[in-house]
């Protein structure tokens, strides 16, 4: 990444995939994800593996293949956790294989069907239903039962999207969301005592920052992470992007148009230059070129490695109530491992252990999904603890198979066109909503919805 980012003109076609784009929604097509797999009927007779999980492993010594996409600042924390697990086990060794998220989602289906994939892995919450429908992963209800996990044990809204066709396919490890980062030195110079908490104070802060010599204090990207900024404001306003049953898109609502209009106004007011490239707003912030940025908490470890004097706070309320887009890393068991009792049991022991150690995952810059883990010092002493107020107001996309294929070519494109001034927010969202609904109807047929 360039140390001196600058805005560039973008086309309306989303740019090359980055790791952070996969913290949102997958832009891969069905063909790229899987070839020749069935859909709509779950995993068949071995959905829960070859036998119930007892909570223990008493089989022969074996090595489990563990795939994940923790290749950035979160990587060292995962390496440490796997090392600790291996040190505690006599007969289970976990071999971690970190793969960039784009490659991970592309390789997983074909590798699993060929018997060359992982036994166990971690994927994003919004990918579980798609991979369950394609017979790539199997249900793990017995793990949740063995750990006595229930919806009330987790951050709100993270539990239900892991259920597809009344079966649970993921055990949540964390939640990760958007946050507002701000340059404390810039704020001090501008006479801003507290991070802005609503639309009015945000506007006032930007004006003060301009008055202090920071001409473009808040860069608005027209690509990543623009669409998850849009989703956050939409949810703050009481809107929803998609129907829970996967039947239609609803993001062109009055709330959606208002959200995208506000984003465009930040450019029109001069707070942001036009045509800001994907991730350029973060690099500009990191290099003290801008004063405020909205980005994911996965940036925390990267900022911690600098000498920048920054703060972190919940997103300001642009709509009616506090809220943010969120996603979650979930542990899963592959259909490949489910056919072998020993591998299935050993994998579930690993998943259970990782769930119970989730407080330590705070070192990756993430928020533990387990309520109990957020009471531990590892989280309370982390920078993301400043987001505690926002945790109960996080929003997740519905568990709709194939939704990750719809968003990049509809919603993301609409946000891009509007922020580039090529179409009005209403025109862009309306056309994209119509296209998205058509694609979702086709997915209902494809996956047996």
Radius of gyration: 22 Å
CATH H level, superfamily name of the largest domain = Periplasmic binding protein-like II
Total beta strands: 14
Sheet/helix structural class: alpha+beta
Outline, from the CA principal axes? globular
In whole angstroms, the N-to-C terminal distance is: 42 Å
Mean pLDDT: 88
Q: In percent terms, what proportion of residues is strand? A: 5-15%
Structure description:
- The protein is of the alpha+beta class and 449 residues long.
- It has two domains: 58-173 and 328-394, Periplasmic binding protein-like II (D-Maltodextrin-Binding Protein, domain 2, 3-Layer(aba) Sandwich), CATH 3.40.190.10; 177-322 and 402-447, Periplasmic binding protein-like II (D-Maltodextrin-Binding Protein, domain 2), CATH 3.40.190.10.
- Helix content is 37%, strand content 13%.
- It has 18 helices and 14 strands.
- Strands 1, 2, 3, 4, 7 and 12 form a six-stranded mixed sheet that branches. Strands 8, 9, 10, 11, 13 and 14 form a six-stranded mixed sheet that branches. Strands 5-6 form a two-stranded antiparallel sheet.
- α2 links the parallel β1 (62-68) and β2.
- α8 (226-236) crosses α9.
- Mean pLDDT is 88; it is low at 1-50.
């Amino acid at each position: 990444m360039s140390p001196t980012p600058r805005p560039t003109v973008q086309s309306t076609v989303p740019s090359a995939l980055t790791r952070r784009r996969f913290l949102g929604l997958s832009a891969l097509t069905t063909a790229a994800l899987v070839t020749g797999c069935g859909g709509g009927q779950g995993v068949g007779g071995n959905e829960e593996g070859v036998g119930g999980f007892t909570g223990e492993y008493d089989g022969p010594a074996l090595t489990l293949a563990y795939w994940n996409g923790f290749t950035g600042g979160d990587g060292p924390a995962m390496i440490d956790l796997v090392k600790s697990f291996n040190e505690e086990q006599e007969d289970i060794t976990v071999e971690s294989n970190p793969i960039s998220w784009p490659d991970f989602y592309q390789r997983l289906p074909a590798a699993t069907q060929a018997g060359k994939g992982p036994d166990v892995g971690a994927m994003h919450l919004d990918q579980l239903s798609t991979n369950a429908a394609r017979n790539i992963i199997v249900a793990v209800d017995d793990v949740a039962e063995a750990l006595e996990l229930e919806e009330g044990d987790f951050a709100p809204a993270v539990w239900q999207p892991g259920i597809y066709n009344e079966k649970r396919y993921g055990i949540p490890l964390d939640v990760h969301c958007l946050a507002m980062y701000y340059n404390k030195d810039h704020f001090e110079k501008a006479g801003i005592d507290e991070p802005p908490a609503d639309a009015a104070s945000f506007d006032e802060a930007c004006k003060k920052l301009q008055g202090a010599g920071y001409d473009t204090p808040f860069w608005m990207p027209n690509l990543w992470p623009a669409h998850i900024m849009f989703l956050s404001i939409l949810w703050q306003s009481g809107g929803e992007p998609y129907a829970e049953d996967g039947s239609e898109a609803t993001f062109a609502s009055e709330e959606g148009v208002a959200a995208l209009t506000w984003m465009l106004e930040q450019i029109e007011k001069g707070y942001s230059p036009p045509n800001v490239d994907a991730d350029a707003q973060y690099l500009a912030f990191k290099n003290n070129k801008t004063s405020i940025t909205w980005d994911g908490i996965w940036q925390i470890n990267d900022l911690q490695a600098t000498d920048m004097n920054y703060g972190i706070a919940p997103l300001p309320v642009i709509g009616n109530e506090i809220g943010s887009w969120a996603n979650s890393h979930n542990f899963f068991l592959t259909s490949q491992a489910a056919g072998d009792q020993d591998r299935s049991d050993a994998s579930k022991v690993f998943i259970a252990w990782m769930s119970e150690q989730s407080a330590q995952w705070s070192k990756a810059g993430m928020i533990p999904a387990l309520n109990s883990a957020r009471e531990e010092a590892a989280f309370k002493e982390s920078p993301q603890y400043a987001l505690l107020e926002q945790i109960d107001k996080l929003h997740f996309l519905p568990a709709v198979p194939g939704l990750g294929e719809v968003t990049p070519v509809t919603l993301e494109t609409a946000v891009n066109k509007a922020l580039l001034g090529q179409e009005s927010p209403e025109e862009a969202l309306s056309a994209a909503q119509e296209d998205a609904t058509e694609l979702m109807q086709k997915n209902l047929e494809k996956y047996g919805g």
